[in-house]
Amino acid sequence: MKTKKVSEQLYTQPHNRDCKVILCCICNYSAQQADELEMAIGDVIKVTKKTKDAWFQGERIWDNAVGWFPSSCVKEINNEHRRAKHLRQRYRLLCTLSPVYENK
């Protein structure tokens, strides 16, 4: 994403497991800059920040990668059941992988 102007306002979500905005990627997105998030169709993203110019910062559920991406590439998951399912899957994946990372 382009460098941010001082006057640009960010809307921040709290950093917790119960994030209210969960998105699903609807088209492939190739990162153009180092702070952008590369996404594939079906990736599930937890939003952490929003800008007025329709860019989001988020964390990809399956690998915790963080970056900026345009809002045109994602669709909000409105169904509470599906949102909880994705967050449970993330928790299980992190629990499974944590011993692997601790041994490195």
Automatic annotation (TrEMBL):
Signal peptide: none annotated. SUPFAM superfamilies: SH3-domain. GO terms for molecular function: guanyl-nucleotide exchange factor activity. Gene3D superfamilies: SH3 Domains. InterPro entries: Ephexin-like (IPR047271), SH3-like_dom_sf (IPR036028), SH3_domain (IPR001452). Keywords: SH3 domain. SMART domains: SH3. Residues 18-79 form the SH3 domain. PANTHER family: EPHEXIN, ISOFORM D (PTHR12845:SF5), GUANINE NUCLEOTIDE EXCHANGE FACTOR (PTHR12845). This is SH3 domain-containing protein.
